[in-house]
Amino acid sequence: MTDQDQKKRQTSAWFSKLQGRICHAFEQLESEAPASLYGGEAGQFEKTPWQRGPEQGGGVAALMRGRLFEKVGVHVSEVYGEFSEEFRTQIPGAGTDPRFWAAGISLIAHMRNPKVPAVHMNTRYIVTTQDWFGGGGDLTPMLAEQRSDDAPDTIRFHASMKAACDAHDPDYYPKFRDWCDRYFYLPHREEPRGTGGIFYDRLNSGNFASDFAFTKDVGKAFLDVYPAIVRTRMGESWSSDEREQQLIQRGRYVEFNLLYDKGTTFGLKTGGNVKTILSSMPPIVKWP
Amino acid sequence: MTDQDQKKRQTSAWFSKLQGRICHAFEQLESEAPASLYGGEAGQFEKTPWQRGPEQGGGVAALMRGRLFEKVGVHVSEVYGEFSEEFRTQIPGAGTDPRFWAAGISLIAHMRNPKVPAVHMNTRYIVTTQDWFGGGGDLTPMLAEQRSDDAPDTIRFHASMKAACDAHDPDYYPKFRDWCDRYFYLPHREEPRGTGGIFYDRLNSGNFASDFAFTKDVGKAFLDVYPAIVRTRMGESWSSDEREQQLIQRGRYVEFNLLYDKGTTFGLKTGGNVKTILSSMPPIVKWP
Question: Which of B189, B268, B283 is closest, CB to CB, to A274?
Fold first, then answer.
């Protein structure tokens, strides 16, 4: 096995392992959620393996429609093949050789309780004639009073992401936080999508082990902080007016993902797994 | 007044007149809708004038949130100015002189009753160093059994559009019907948005009077056929399962408008009136 094959095997194995841990943590929360606020049975993840095509890889989509987690997808994939002519020039290292390999984990959670923020996390490892890591995690509180830098959930989320960053490079957090703010922004609304987090791409410091360790730490930080935020908030009741605010705020999520998100539009326009990509859409949305 | 100014005045006046007639017809239907199926008061249009900026024109947004018409926008605009560097090369006749003038009417109706199809209609007149008409109308039935070429509402809608076309040129209907089918298509779903209608653009036969008459006939055909379809269907009751199907089908509408529709994406990315553009979003949508 080549050195590069080893890296592929390690990263792909990590994304799968992280998927398992996150699904477990989320199912745990599902079962702990107070019955007084959340009717019905606790949900469980349905895992659906899919193939991209012969010799092109595939993935495992894990989707839960629960009582606390109204809709959450935690997907892993490992795909490979050749970029089309159109995309070769757009992807680093693919101009001379169109072959690629990519693995990653992608998560979006839409919660029933408008007081529990929605969240997104995604990390990936991509190999062309170059190789790099990318990803991040960001929080999207639904209620106006929570959508500020100094709201408690936001402070907590950022602190966790900062700690993961600081353990590797003091420049990471300020740089990746700013990148996140610029990326998750709706210019037509002049609004940020949420209250940020971190976003990084094309990370290759020259030291694979260290970059991989950082990417693992981002996943672990997410696994540490988001369930903690959910556990803090899930016992709070909500009004129908707050639910309404949430459904409207979700519309911004849809607008961002379909108008601007590179992962979504790239995936949909290049024959990605449509069902998996669009499983990130909120379960119910209003544009009143 | 120059000849070109006359054309602008006539077209803009027509779009406003058509807006008035359509709003009147829709309010009439709102008031006729049977109370046994549609609770609450009959809706009325709220008309909101808006300005694009100093010396840049504006429009009148007419929006009704009713009991039969769950959400319907019938908007007119007359805007002018200069295209940005970026768009000059993309718009016919704007390469040498960036000034433009554009007027039009744009309508999308989302109905409460899943048995009543949603509908879209838009016609416009655009002037750069060239000038042309564009537009069309198309039907989007919500229930699977209505989404075929030989469903009654679809046959009726097409017959009306065909008559408007045939009165001007026997080639129009087949050409504009095909154009509509190609345009309102979701490649990622491999699904048409609806059951078609007509779509045309850059229409300039060399005879303004005739092209304008055709564009007026498209508007009149719409005003003739869509209220008739609504009147036929609005007395039919529906099940919660059919309502669910409708809310899911609306998600395709959102996907199309944000991923592919040139009017929407162009408008949002070039400083259009965001509120008016996004008033076409369905009031409530599900991605279960």
Answer: B189
